[in-house]
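**Tokenised fold:**
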Amino acid sequence: MKFTSCVVFLFSLLSVSLAQSIMIGFPKPSANITAGSNFTVEVDRPNSLTGSTEVGIAINIQPCAARGECIPPEDLLGFTLYAGSYNPQFHTNVSFGLPPHQNFTVALPSSFAKGTALLSVTHLSLVGAGPFPLFEIRNATVNIV
């Protein structure tokens, strides 16, 4: 009986944390980004009935090796494009079905290496009445031109 209760509890924690999980809405994987330009990073978070407090995010980018092999963002985040608050909102002037999100306009230095790069978003929030910390890193491979 205790084992079943523990399993149910763990699955409920997992489902709550997945509901608070972020996604990179834009740029899409394999998108071209021009070095020396500004570009938009859209960070989505699905709507949830579970309360949460956003602590913040960091948006980073790192060049990958010549063969396209990228260092995992858990080991190296790379160049910081943004670090600060995150406040996802529903927007009435966007496509139907878009989850709460926030857009960040960031500047990619002109000296950034051309080729494959790994864009990562590191997210921290406090979830539930407890609360418990939710820490995650999401990434997308992009092309720097």
About this structure: Confidence is low (pLDDT under 50) at residues 5-19. The chain has one domain: 2-144.
